[in-house]
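As a warm-up, study this chain.
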Amino acid sequence: MGGKVIAVDISKHRSHIVRGNLARLNLSAELIVADARDWRPDVPVPFVLLDAPCTATGTVRRHPELPWIKRAADITAQESLQRELLDAAAEMISSGGTLVYAVCSLEPEECVEQVETFLARRPDFARDPLRSDEVPDAAFISNQGDLRTFPHYWNKKGGMDGFYAARLRRRE
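Now compare it with the structure written out below.
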């Protein structure tokens, strides 16, 4: 849609996969292999999507072994990394800009609690609740106005992954 996309990933392998997918879809993006906790754009940007590493417990429908292989320590480790990445992403956002935080986790510590803690530390950001006309099903909007899906949603259509996303706006 005419935007300049910069994709930052710490993994050279995942960046290679993204490059292939972009070529296949005839799309373009500047790909940067770097740790997003350290990398910054030359100037603040109006939009950042942080697709944060997580425990992926929302994919339990496709990976039924997850409840038996994930431990509390996994959540704690991801929660810490997510906090660092959120703080780094916040530093990239221009005044009035939007930060979207997303994970495929069902764990409150990685979802709403992560966002609530971020907002408590960063009064220069506020939640920007979703509207029902922005999602395919109003049931996907949480009481806080975030996007929240669960594996049992849309069972008649084959189900879906558990997913969480919050839209946050930097105050002007």
